[in-house]
Task: structure prediction
Amino acid sequence: MTFFKFSAPFFLILNFLIVCAFSPAQSCKFSVQFAGQPYSMNTLIYTPTDTAIVMQLKCYVRYLHPKKQMWEHQLLDFYLAEKPIELKLPRGADSIQLFFGVDSALQEKGVGTGDLDPKNNMYWGWFPGYIGVKVEGISELFGGFEYHLGGFRRYNANQSFLWVKPGGNYSIDVGEFISKIPKEKEGKIMSPGPEIPRFAQYFVESIHERK
Amino acid sequence: MSGSKVFWGLMIFFFVSGISSEKLFFTPDGWPVPVYDFQQNPPTQAKFELGRRLFYDPILSADSSTSCSSCHSNYNAFTHTDHALSHGIHDRVGKRNSMALFNLAWKDAFFWDGAAHQLDVQALAPLTDSNELGSKVNEVLQRLKTTAPYPALFKRAFGREEINTQNFLKALAIFELSLISNQSKYDSVKRNEAQFTAQEKNGYTLFLQYCQRCHEEPLFRKSGFEKNGLLMNQKLKDTGRFNLTKQHEDSLKFTIPSLRNLSYSYPYFHDGRANRLMDVLQHYNTTPSIIPFPLSKNELIDLQSFLLTLDDVNFVFNKKFGYPLHTTSRK
Result:
């Protein structure tokens, strides 16, 4: 009995280490497309109905780590990405609910480090908090566009999510996203507001799993 | 080491550290609990010195011409009286009147529309605005990393030479939090160390009747946003709080500024349209959309004389808050 009492914590730790050692690292990948076609940032793309260039595509993604019970944030910045961006996922999970934007409670505290460092140019100055999604470019069909989506108090734009699977490949379709934004916005969204959560949902709906 | 040496060493340490912390930040008697979370950023002398240096250093601007103090001069209660709107790099002009900086630990929203919800992050807006300091955060950090004595000052303040955004903002915040103004004649009267004149006393009575609703003692401001009855500046098209909330009831609502140090912090209002304090009082006296304010000319003068008792000459001319090279602490 005494042996069991003192050895139980040891076996628990050993079990944890074994699980960690044999659970392979997991990830999924994100790339960019435009109107259904694969796209390389900062290059002209010709579709049957449009000619366009995407100059900026950045977004924050986050998931609640099942063991740590903390939000894990990562900035997906496609500006210089020559290949799909890898997003590390927790070991052992079959699927993960991936949210877009920065956790609201964290934004109440101020600024973060690493990917959440304001030097990544994803922190608003004259508006509170982080920009969750930044999409900029020029389209012959839709004109110039600068869409900065964020907001975390009255207009929480950080609720949209996508279920992702380890090993999955996902494409963000910028052409589809900009086609969903109403023309009245004249290609500019630069502040929080009541419509922004809906536009953030459009962004997530423009992400597709590639088979 | 003998016991007595250890004892006296500890006494000196506690005495010095006690003085330092008292000077850095304190809550005056009768004041509310600060809003700022000091547990996340405990004040230290090293952070204060670093923050003060950063505040006065034009290295923060894109062309090294403009510092925080360019619009927030200590002699003007940390605002600027020379122009209505803030000025920035390349002679650019901003969109709003720079705000006076003091008693910031008691504020829960910053800027005229409350766009910044926390003191640490507010510096990012003027730092990166192309009409103000026009910098990029990573470029500022890079300049600081390669400019002596910043690596050493950051190490002293945060224990590491690494210069990152968080520490940069925290140091600036500690300097700004130390700007406490509580040495006015009004404060002396409240401490029973002085007395109002008859005119000031009458003005105080009028203040309590007409102004206290928005400008609560002892900070002479309160949280939230109000319409001040001003028509929209057609050039600036500034809708105030509406800009953030997109709620019609917030249109033309602005933060309620403190009435302390008014002699040093003109021009007034968000767009700096009033140069004289009496112009502000006349505005409230003649604008029907604001609460009734039917004061005679003599009463307005009495009210103004009370408001001038909120001037804090000790704060405004305190060299501790001045340009670092002009203070003895650099020796």
Q: What stands out?
A: The first strand of chain B starts at residue 225 and ends at 227. Chain B touches chain A through 26 residues (CB under 8 Å). The mean pLDDT of chain B is 90.
